[in-house]
């Protein structure tokens, strides 16, 4: 079982490695579903991790139908990632009609080589998952991160299983979204995926001693200024064990 942890900061990347992850997906902006992180963050993470580092190539939140300016930014981000010696990139572009934009995806995949390339959950917003599967294979993606076109992978487990069958080894199907201690066994049992993607999220208190009582969080009233997102290494280990035991048992 291959375990990929999505992380949004440097400390989370280090914690994911501590927990035994095989790979991280490095992003920024969890509230937007993940966008491209800063090059400083990518460089520091790459220098301090021995596991694979995949970087999100997504110029903004929202839909996956990009302008020519945004497409150019994606190409530049891939170039910078190659210079920083990461192992892979994560991307996806859709046409307005809900099909995979094969022309531009192929260009990005070719530009990214020799890095590995994952099609992210833009796949879950595609009109026809089986046509999207064939399109992803045609343009050269190495894997697809998907929840089975549902909000959580446990709800899309049947489709995940069908995608695994239809892929037949031509591309890797990785289950993601809502993968945790309570769901991973059912997801793996129903789909037989051999790669899982999750956050193992934890929070820790800020080290700040002075806290302005007038401002709970920058731009919000949630107190988020003093709650820092990280990864729980024990969760990583536990979820991996549950997934591997399920796969081995054939249940």
TrEMBL record:
Matching Pfam families: CutC
Top-level taxon of origin: Bacteria
GO CC terms in record: cytoplasm
Record keywords: Cytoplasm
InterPro entries: CutC-like, CutC-like_dom_sf
Protein localization: Cytoplasm
Major subcellular location class: cytoplasm
Gene Ontology molecular-function annotations: copper ion binding
Family to which this protein belongs: Belongs to the CutC family.
Protein name: PF03932 family protein CutC
Originating organism: Chryseosolibacter histidini
């Amino acid at each position: 079982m291959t375990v990929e942890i999505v992380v949004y900061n440097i400390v989370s990347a280090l914690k994911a490695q501590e927990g035994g992850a095989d790979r991280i997906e490095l992003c920024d902006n969890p509230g937007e579903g993940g966008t491209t992180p800063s090059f400083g963050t990518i460089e520091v993470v790459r220098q301090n991790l021995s596991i694979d580092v995949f970087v999100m190539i997504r110029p903004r939140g929202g839909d996956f139908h990009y302008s020519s300016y945004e497409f150019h930014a994606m190409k530049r981000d891939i170039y910078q990632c190659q210079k920083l010696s990461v192992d892979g990139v994560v991307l996806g572009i859709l046409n307005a009609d809900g099909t995979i934009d094969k022309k531009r995806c192929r260009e990005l995949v070719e530009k990214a080589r020799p890095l590995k390339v994952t099609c992210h959950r833009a796949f879950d917003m595609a009109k026809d998952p089986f046509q999207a599967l064939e399109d992803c294979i045609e343009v050269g993606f190495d894997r697809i991160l998907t929840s089975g076109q549902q909000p959580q992978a446990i709800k899309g487990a049947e489709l995940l299983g069908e995608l695994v069958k239809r892929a037949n080894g031509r591309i890797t199907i990785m289950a993601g979204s809502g993968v945790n201690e309570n769901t991973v066994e059912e997801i793996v049992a129903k789909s037989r995926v051999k790669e899982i993607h999750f956050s193992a999220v934890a929070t820790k208190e800020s080290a700040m001693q002075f806290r302005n009582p007038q401002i709970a969080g920058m731009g919000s009233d949630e107190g988020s200024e003093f709650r820092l997102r990280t990864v729980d290494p024990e969760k990583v280990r536990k979820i991996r064990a549950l997934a591997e035991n399920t796969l081995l048992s054939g249940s």
